[in-house]
Amino acid sequence: MPTPHYGQPRYRVIADELRERISSGAIPPGALLPTESALTAEFRASRGTIRQAIAILRDEHMVATEHGRGTYASPFWLNTSLEGGESETRHRQVAAGPDLAALFAVDVGTTVVERETVRRMHGVVCEVVRTYRPLRPGQ
Amino acid sequence: MPTPHYGQPRYRVIADELRERISSGAIPPGALLPTESALTAEFRASRGTIRQAIAILRDEHMVATEHGRGTYASPFWLNTSLEGGESETRHRQVAAGPDLAALFAVDVGTTVVERETVRRMHGVVCEVVRTYRPLRPGQ
DNA sequence: AGAAATTTGTCCGTATGTATC
DNA sequence: AGATACATACGGACAAATTTC
Questions:
Q1: How far is B30 from chain A (nearest CA, A)?
Q2: Residues of chain B above pLDDT 70, percent
Q3: Cβ of A119: how many Cβ atoms within 10 Å?
């Protein structure tokens, strides 16, 4: 078969189809996707094309792949919501989420210090920098 | 020739090398990277491998590719990620929570880029810096 | 414990489509 | 119109991690 890619490229079409299956629950969260070879048979596409489609979903954090095992449909994660600020730089104490707690090797909920700097260009916020440090550095 | 990939895969090594050139300024921001065929010749790798390396940098927003023109070094993350001690920096895309959405004046859930740098002293995490930027800063 | 099968990871080479200069 | 360069797609081969027998 030649390689006509009019309109949407095939790998994107395949990615859309797989995304739809995950979103609709046809592939429940945590479940394994069909193997790459199974997908090549189903979509009549080469393995490279299939892997390109899966790479899209991986970038979107829709799936997670493990070497030798397969590709899982990954459950969505919750984003930590902290209140916003308008000043240039402010400090406050916040409870460490699981991510920060894991990084600092402390219990979840441990107080850490956050410094938030909001940088604007022509009045438009272009960058937000948040620096976290433990209350007792080194301990 | 067989395909021995001991240690780091070649595309990752190539991506590291190109990232270093951009970070160090050897490839100035906004400049065109060498063409894929030039990189093919330089690294003695196939185009697929070169493109895989470039895809990594594209995911990190270190470069931007324009169809038919070439791949540019993006001034987006021009920095300073150099440091003496032990630190790891990674990039990823996250959905903006209410706080970030308010700061950037975008809808909640809008994709923003997060760069997270974890600094360690003697193996102990002492600081976590998270920088958020919108996907399109003007570029 | 070990071997085989399964599955994803990496790499190559080639061909062709599409956009830009 | 031609040249250049990136995008898409195919096929094959071998490596590495996991599971299964």
A1: 19
A2: 80
A3: 14
